[in-house]
Amino acid sequence: MSSGINWFKFSSPASFYPLAKKLAVGFGTLAVVFCAVGLYIGFFMAPTDHQQGESYRIIFIHVPAAWMSMFIYLVMAFWAGMGLAFNTRLSGMMASALAPTGAMFTFIALWTGSLWGKPTWGTWWVWDARLTSELILLFLYFGFLALQAAIDDPRRADRAGAVLALVGVVNVPIIYFSVKWWNTLHQGASVSLSSAPTMATTMLIGMLVMVFGFWFYSIAAVLMRARCIMLERERNSEWAAQYLESGA
Amino acid sequence: MLETAVFVIRRDLLLAMRRRSDVLTVLLFFVIVVSLFPLGVGPEPALLRTIAPGVIWVAALLASMLALSRVFAQDYADGTLEQMLLSASPLSVIVAGKVLAHWLMTGLPLVLLAPVLALQFDVPQNFLGELMLSLLLGTPALSLIGTIGAALTLGLRGGGALVALLVLPLYIPVLIIGAGALDAAAAGLGAGAHLLLLGAFLVMAAAFAPWVAAVALRIALE
Fold first, then answer.
1. In terms of residue numbers, what domain contains A106?
2. How many beta-carbon pairs under 8 angstroms link A with B?
3. How far is the C-alpha of A174 from the C-alpha of B161, rounded, in Å?
4. What confidence tens digit (pLDDT) does each residue in A90-129 have?
């Protein structure tokens, strides 16, 4: 590359590894600060909801987790596509590093959702379109993790996982709309999240701060995991040996 | 290109006909799974009529998934698959031929058998056409999507259960639309919209799945 920024400089694990550490520490600190502030606003400053009482406060965790669960799948598919297109080692590592965090947020979203559903809807679970598609998203994450775990050769694991993630991301909208349609057709539970009353400003601010907190947490956690994967896979390379000797 | 596909289909059908018991096993699995449900939920005709589309579709889904390992496993074991990868004909055409042959051996018998099983569930006779049509459009789509899973897991340990984990979430739209066709027909809405959607899904799967499976095969065998 003759001029401008070398976009591929950090696509090599050797140069990305130290950067990842700095970024992970920075974003980790930000995550702690934002989550602490967000939780404080959520649990102490935000007013009690006159319809749902105190139980609504779970949205400060539930909504950001649900957003992250979907967004991380997209990011994972993006890295998967990059890995297949440019054949960069780091892309596959990023995709595998993202999957556990995404699965965790999907699980948290489902879990907190049912904790909220019990006092509000009177049931732990309804076959609502959003709940069902979130559950299927969790299955997609599990499929990706299981496929990668079953393949010993990391190159094949990356590429096979990438194909699966891309097939999954094409299917996500189809699944969402078919589930939504199925739900309206069957018309079981008649609860709707979309008709919720408008939120108070403090609630909205608390939620947005939590969203940023979860974002930063995801970046930090993923980079830390990517660092482990890098070191594990490149343990025979020169830079890894140097790093391990220096003990930094 | 067409010649290649026809050749692959004929070859796979011939191989399958020489081991007929494999084909029959899948079919019997389908029959047994469907027959288990009345034993589990009780024999009330009204209940059985309600669950019939779902039960038949889920059983067809499982049966078609069970048969997936055979799409490539034999050719992988005896080295034929590597020759296919080296062949001058495009791999996706070969894969498409294999999927079609696989569907003819495992999907089509399910479609033909489904009305008989539906009668056991007291499904009105005038809906049997919709049931068969929905399966006729849906099962090839299942085979196509499943082939991607079969190619990805080729030669891996724990293949069968792994394929289930990869493929079943992707089957969900077909299940919803397919089983919905019969529900809609029973509700007097007509199954047209569902069948068209299934057809659209099938066309999309037919266009992309052989190509994706070919990519997955190259990854598995590189």
1. 22-192+200-241
2. 68
3. 24
4. 888 999 999 999 999 999 999 998 888 888 778 888 887 7
B180 Cβ under 8 Å from any chain A Cβ: yes
Chain B: give the shortest CA distance to residue A188, in Å: 14
B134: chain A residues, CB-CB within 8 Å: none
pLDDT at A10 over 80: no
CA distances from A11 to A8, A35, A62 (A): 5, 30, 34
Q: What is the DSSP string of B177-201?
A: HHHHHHHHHHTTS-SHHHHHHHHHH
Distance CA A142, CA B115 (A): 35
In a domain, A3, yes or no: no
State pLDDT tens for residues B109-168.
999 999 999 988 888 888 888 889 999 999 999 999 999 999 999 888 777 788 989 999
Given an 8 Å threshold on Cβ–Cβ distance, is B152 in contact with A136? Answer: no
CB A81 within 8 A of CB A162: yes
> What pLDDT is recorded for position A177?
81
Q: How far, in Å, CA of A240 to CA of B4, rounded?
A: 49
Residue A12: strand, helix, or coil: coil
**Domain membership flag for residue A16:** no
CB contact under 8 A, B215 and A171: no
In a domain, A144, yes or no: yes
- The count of C-alpha atoms lying within 13 angstroms of the C-alpha of A166, restricted to the half-sphere facing its C-beta, is 23
Does B216 lie at the interface with A, CB-CB under 8 angstroms? yes
Structure tokens at B211: 């190509």
Q: Do the chains contact at A147 and B162, CB–CB below 8 Å? A: yes
Which letter, b or e, does each residue of A95-131 get, where b requires 16 or more Cβ atoms within 10 Å of its Cβ?
bbbbbbbbbbbbebbbebbbebbeebeeeeebebbbb
**Nearest of B170, B146, B183, B48 to residue A182 by alpha carbon:** B183
Domain count of the fold of chain A: 1
Question: At CB < 8 Å, which residues of chain A contact B?
Answer: 136, 139-140, 142-143, 146-147, 150-151, 156, 159-160, 163-164, 167-168, 170-171, 174-175, 178-179, 181-182, 185-186
Do the domain assignments include residue A181? yes
CB contact under 8 A, B166 and A156: no
Contact B201 A159 (CB under 8 A): no
Q: Name the strand (E) or helix (H) holding B36.
A: helix B20-41
The complex scores an ipTM of 0.87
- Chain A residues within 8 A of B220 when measuring between CB atoms: 156, 160
CA-wise closest residue to B136 among B164, B114, B167:
B114
Where are the domains positioned within chain B?
2-221
